[in-house]
Amino acid sequence: MRRTRLDAATKDLDPPFAIVDLDAFDHNAADLARRAAGHPIRVASKSIRVRELVSRALERPGYAGVMCYSLAEALWLSEQNVSEDLLVAYPTADRASLQKLAANETARQRVTIMVDSTEHLDFVDAAIGPHADIRVCLELDVSWRPLPGVHIGPRRSSIHTPQQAKALAAKITQRTGFKLVGVMAYEGQIAGLGDNPPGQPLRALGIRFIQSKSGPELVQRRTAVVTAVRQVADLEFVNGGGTGSLELTGSDPSVTELAAGSGLFGPTLFDGYQGFKPEPAALFALSVVRKPTKRVATLFAGGYIASGTPTPDRQPSPYLPSGLKTLSLEGAGEVQTPVTGKAAEQLKIGDRVWMRHAKAGELFERFDEVHLVHGDRIERTVPTYRGERRNFG
């Protein structure tokens, strides 16, 4: 029984604390590699935020390189020799980090920054002056636009068509101090949007319709974009996908690598997919501190709300013992989280309840360390980014 095993492994710890179940983590890593079907997976560090676990994933077959969420993070991971291939997934306006990048030859060979306009190039030039070649990746917007004015997908790049991509690629290659090495195209409306949300059959039908139309369109358009860009630049990689779209993205002949991170931890937002079911690997424990009624147990703290839309699915969820839920009028709170259900009748003061976060790496912005559990014991305890005094936004 998983609850018994986790309780035994952590019996000497006082909640709140966080763990990663290495058995589940390794299972998920193997399943992601299976789904990638031979494409290397770049580890999305924002979904991990524990240096030890980024390295653990990279040591496995099928994983290569890191997708960072800030330039400062990429520079730090380079200093720590976590990887020699660090792609920054979002454009940067961090002048201090750009100056460090320009001054460090090793970092310039390892780090690739993201651009989708010549304004990004102008900003870099203004921040650091004349400079040696900086590696850049062109980001393509792969949102679905079925009608004029309709945009389904994340608001990311300004580059949507093959013509726009080729024109920007040509301008990049003509600029002194920049080297265009890659294209990235993240299909958030598929990779990050579960097609089988629990208890929402009508929403599920709508999402599946969107994805069934968006998927073939983006494969066709991304292939055309890459063909156009390769006419003016010698690309090293074409990155796409996320945990929720590995099969689709891997079917695109233009893609050379995939990206994933959340699937290693299996947060609750990834319960809503038909095609795969990650094991919950990242958990946190809270103590029962009150029993206001027979069927309500109040836990200490726990209001670790995920970013995104302010909807109930961004709240953490009780996991073990099974059969618990938060109260709709109180939810997960800053200092207390009441839970109810038949299982609450058996809980007493000092018992622990295991919780799951809605998203993956955001949990570890709350904890300085994470206990890595193997079987019924703690294998070791390691710092999170926060525990290493690293905050990248």
From TrEMBL:
Q: Which Pfam families match?
A: Ala_racemase_N (PF01168)
What are the residue boundaries of the Alanine racemase N-terminal domain, all occurrences included?
A: 20-190
GO biological process entries: D-serine catabolic process
Q: Which SUPFAM superfamilies match?
A: PLP-binding barrel
Q: State the Gene3D superfamilies in the record.
A: Alanine racemase (3.20.20.10)
Citing just one GO molecular function, the answer is: D-serine ammonia-lyase activity
Say which domain of life the source belongs to: Bacteria
For this protein, the record's PANTHER family field holds:
D-SERINE DEHYDRATASE, ZGC:162816-RELATED
Name this polypeptide is given: D-serine deaminase, pyridoxal phosphate-dependent
Look up and give the organism this protein is from. Answer: Lentzea waywayandensis
Species classification: Bacteria, Bacillati, Actinomycetota, Actinomycetes, Pseudonocardiales
